[in-house]
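Escalated from tier 1: 2-OXO-4-methylpentanoic acid holo job.
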Amino acid sequence: MTQKADIKWSELRFSYIECDYRFISVYKDGKWDEGELSQGHHISIHQGSTSIHYGQQCFEGMKAYTTKEGKIVLFRPDRNAARIRNSCENLLMAVYPEEKFIEAVKKVVKANERFVPPYGSGASLYIRPYMIGVGENVGVRPAPEYIFGIFVTPVGPYFKGGLTPCHFVTSKYDRAAPRGTGGIKVGGNYAASLLAHKEAVDAGFADCIYLDPATHTNIEEVGAANFFGITPDNTFITPKSPSILPSITKYSLMHIAENSLGMKVVEKEIPVSSLDQFSEAGACGTAAVITPVGSITHEGKKYAFYGEGNEVGPVTKKLYETLTSIQCGDLKGPDGWVVEI
Ligand code: PLP
Ligand code: COI
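Tier 2 regenerated the structure:
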C-alpha cells in the first residue's frame, strides 16, 4: 500500500494543496493527442486564447474517496463525463470522449494515490477536470485548439463546519440569464457570482441564494450548490429551472430520498414566499456535500428552519449519512454509482 502524504487530513479546508501529477491532453488540427500525466502547477497558453477573453471554458468537480478496505472509489463519474460533454457542446468546444474522460480521471487519481485522504478522515480528493479554448486568435469565434486538463487536491468541508447549519441571504444579482448558461458548468457563471458572494459574506452570511433571473421570486441555487427543502409530511422538494446546474448530488439525493427513505420527491418552482412550508432545508453539491441551511434572509425577513436554524434536522442528517456511506463504500448504492479505481 502506498505511503500517504504527511497531511493533517481532518484539518483540511477547501483549498489548493500541491499534488504530484496532473493530466493534460491537447486538441490540435482536429484531433486529441494521447494525453499524459505530467508534473507542475502552471500552463502556458497563447495570449489571444478564447478562454482568456471570451470565457470559452468549462469545468467539472468530482471526488475520490477511500473505502474501509482501502480501495479508492469515484462517485458517478459517468455523470460528470456527460455533463462536461454538454458544457463543451454548448460553447462549441471540442468534446473529450466520455470513456476517455473516466479513464483519465482514474489515471490521475491513481498517480496521486498518496493524496487520497484515508477512510474516516472526513476529507476527500477533489478532482477538477477543465476544458479551455486556446491558440492564436482575436475574434469572437470558437478556438482553434483546446486543452483538457485534470488536477486534484485533497479537501475538507466547503462551508465552515461541515454538517453545521449555515445562514444565507438572497442576492439582488443573477449568476446566469433565464435562457443563458446557468444549466452548464462554465466559468462565466462563477465570475458573475463573485460580487454576490462577497456582499453576502461581508454582511455576515455563509453565501448568497440566487433567485430565478426572470422574476426574482423563486429560489434557484445556494452559492455553488443546489437547494432542497423538506416538509413536515416527509416530502423532498427542490427547484426546477433551466438556469440551475443539474447537480449530480441532488439527483442522487432525490433517488435516496425516494428509494431509501420512502419520501415523496418533487422538483418544482419554490417561491421565496413559500419557504415557511419547510421544516428543514439544505444545500447540496460535490464540494458542499450536504450543508444544512439554517436560515434564509430575504428583503429583511428571516426564514429559519430546523431548531430555529441552529440544529441539523433528522431528515437532513439521514440523507447525509446515506449519501456519504454510499460514497465511501459502506453502503451499497445503485449499480454504477461507485466506481473502483
Ligand atoms: N450548482 C452549482 C452552481 C455548482 O457549482 C455545483 C457544483 O458542482 C452544484 C450546483 C452541485 O453540483 P454537483 O452535485 O454535480 O457537484
Ligand atoms: C463543486 O461542487 O464541485 C463545485 O464545482 C463547486 C465550486 C467549488 C465551484
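The domain at 9-155 is CATH 3.30.470.10 (D-amino Acid Aminotransferase; Chain A, domain 1).
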